[in-house]
Amino acid sequence: MKIIRASHCLTTPWKNGGGSTTEIAAEPSGTSLDTFDWRVSMAQVASDGPFSEFPGIDRTLAIVSGRGLVLTIGNDAPVTIEGESEPINFAGDIPTSARLIGGEITDLNVMARRGRFSHRLRRVREALSCDYDDNDTAVVLSLNGNTTVTSQYEVATLGHGDAAILVCAREVSFCITPAVGSDCYLVLLRQHRD
């Protein structure tokens, strides 16, 4: 189990001044925005505007704080996403824009390079025992409180913004136990093999 503390994550302001992004984890390690296989990040969105395009990338977005936003993805009807909404999936190469509902928000973004990895994102609010099924990697992100992650060999306590990366090759299963009132997110990643 690899632990990533929030204090070690790099936050980068956007060139357009409309927000900032904090990278939580990406593979391969040290990869750029053009070469990652998968990436988990949080964004502080302070103004309306278009999303950056990511050709060949599948994305999932969830609202973790703030009122929410209205997403327009390509020619589809606008979709409202709030804190209690299910995460929304969309292709990074389709023009997408966002309009804030009522002030700044923080969202969680998971991106995977199509054809190399696929991913799933879910919110966890109660203790959960997890098997990998056909997935290779799990990322657990703790928000608004503490979360305990227990694997075969280790126990770790995650604070706000901390994450744990677990790899199937080293673990058989793991448990996630968020503290009462905490939010926790689980990302499952599966590598595509030819």
Automatic annotation (TrEMBL):
Give the domain of life. Bacteria
What Gene3D superfamilies does the record point to? Jelly Rolls
- Pfam (any one): HutD
This chain's protein is named HutD-family protein
Q: Which organism is it from?
A: Bradyrhizobium canariense
**Taxonomic lineage per UniProt?**
Bacteria, Pseudomonadati, Pseudomonadota, Alphaproteobacteria, Hyphomicrobiales
